[in-house]
Amino acid sequence: MKASAIFRLRWAVVWGLMPSRVQHEAPTRPKMETLALTEVEDGNKRWILEAKDAEYLKEQKTIRITGIKVEFFGEGGRVLKVSCQEGLINTKSRALTLRGRVRLEEGDLIIKTETVHYQPKERLLVAPEEVVLESPRLTIRGQGLRVELRSRRLALIRHQSTEVKLTGKGWLK
């Protein structure tokens, strides 16, 4: 089954299971207190999204969401966790725009920025603004980050600074 069919099916299931939580401010703008979506392609999970609040904007074919947590799944059970304050889901293309204190985590690597765009066809995350990459011994600052989920590659377009945290008695120990 294609990813778009699963996406629509999950949306319909979530929508159908939560009628008591739907509030209608206007006939075309239903709101939900929680939203959970899973995208599956060829039997493999691509991502799981959870949001505290959601508002369906039918005329724009988008869902406005807040209090967001997303898990992107990669090869070998790798998981990239993303959290942020708000975002938009394009219901037709499945593209995501995530904004507000965006935090990406995998293992001991943490990436912080203000905006991330997910392009589903390319399985690509793009952070066009300033980014900070932090690990226990390294902090890198720059602008324009690309995270290729298929190949597990990070590319920083503009490097600004690198800070290495030294430990131990010697300079490089």
Give the key terms.
single chain, 173 residues, mainly beta, lipopolysaccharide transport protein A fold, eleven-stranded antiparallel beta sheet, 1 helix, 9% helix, 62% strand, globular
Short characterization:
This protein has 173 residues and is mainly beta. It contains 1 helix and 11 strands; from the N terminus they run αβββββββββββ. The protein is globular, with a radius of gyration of 18 Å.
Outline the structure in words:
The radius of gyration is 18 Å and the shape is globular. It contains one helix and eleven strands; from the N terminus they run H-E-E-E-E-E-E-E-E-E-E-E. Strands 1, 2, 3, 4, 5, 6, 7, 8, 9, 10 and 11 form an eleven-stranded antiparallel sheet that branches. The chain is 9% helix and 62% strand. It is mainly β. The protein has one domain (3-164): lipopolysaccharide transport protein A fold (Sandwich).
